[in-house]
Automatic annotation (TrEMBL):
One of its GO terms (cellular component) is extracellular region. This is Polysaccharide deacetylase. Residues 63-260 form the NodB homology domain. Pfam families: Polysacc_deac_1. Keywords: Signal. GO terms for molecular function: hydrolase activity, acting on carbon-nitrogen (but not peptide) bonds. It is found in: Secreted. It comes from Desulfacinum infernum DSM 9756.
Length: 260
């Protein structure tokens, strides 16, 4: 295993407000993303397979990538799941457990649209058909602003609710807003999770801290060429000129090295 990528989505639906555009990937575009992964020979793996690889029990194939969704929007069931099943793609959804069957309350008053979240019936149906679920805390707080006791409660209670609701162990966790400190990371490990997903971009390797896995955020405005560039360079932002600049700088560095 040389390296692997983890993709991060949120909503799979049309944006309703201007600020939704970053987080809401239109369903037709999402399908083109998944078709691209399959067509270009990426090996889409589960977080469970990644955990086995990082803990020594499994070797990941080349060009491995995992697909994850943060928050647990109802459109993940309605629009994303049928596409995932059609292409045979495993995925993990990180749930805000207090929001199951409710709405995205943490986004209220910030210019985002109000969205329905997954119900427990939808979560169980998806879980029974192979979708994995992880924790995104109980209430989607900024963990770095909470006391140690509050952090522990968010981590432990959400995991317990998920395991009770699903009837199976919960392996993975994703940090709300990507906010994490050493203390928060250690609390995630103590709470019994096996993996922690950040929002820091980059490739993951065997030596990567499995509680600080890097993820590539896929924006709702990312056309397929942008996704391709993000997969190539393991970066959140993409531009038509970045590859030219990247390869020019590499060529320049080699030329300077030969002359030294």
């Amino acid at each position: 295993m040389s390296r692997f990528l983890v993709l991060m989505y949120h909503m799979v639906s049309e944006p309703k407000e201007r600020r939704d555009a970053r987080f809401a990937c239109p369903p037709a575009l999402f399908e083109r993303h998944m078709a691209y992964l399959v067509r270009r020979g990426f090996r889409v793996v589960s977080l469970e397979e990644i955990h086995s690889a990082l803990t020594g029990g499994l070797s990941l194939p080349d060009r491995s990538v995992a697909v994850t969704f943060d928050d647990g929007y109802a459109d993940n069931y309605e629009n994303a799941w049928p596409v995932l099943e059609r292409y045979g793609i495993p995925a993990t959804v990180f749930l805000v457990t207090d929001a199951v069957g409710r709405t995205n309350h943490w986004m209220e008053g910030r210019g985002f649209s109000r969205r329905r979240m997954l119900s427990w019936a939808q979560v169980r149906e998806m879980s029974d058909r192979g979708v994995s679920f992880g924790s995104h805390t109980a209430s989607h707080p900024r963990l770095t602003e909470l006391s140690p006791v509050q952090v522990e409660d968010e981590l432990v209670s959400s995991r317990r609710v998920l395991e009770d609701g699903l009837g199976k162990p919960v392996l993975s966790f994703a940090y709300p807003y990507g906010l994490v400190t050493d203390a928060v990371r250690e609390a995630v490990e103590r709470a019994g999770y096996g993996l922690g997903c950040s929002t820091r971009s980059g490739f993951n390797r065997r030596e990567t801290d499995r509680f600080l896995l890097r993820r590539i955020e896929v924006y709702g405005t990312d056309r397929v060429w942008r996704l391709a560039q993000k997969l190539t360079f393991a970066m959140n932002d993409a531009s038509p000129f970045y590859p030219l600049k990247y390869y020019w700088n590499r060529a320049l560095a080699r030329w300077i090295g030969k002359g030294s």
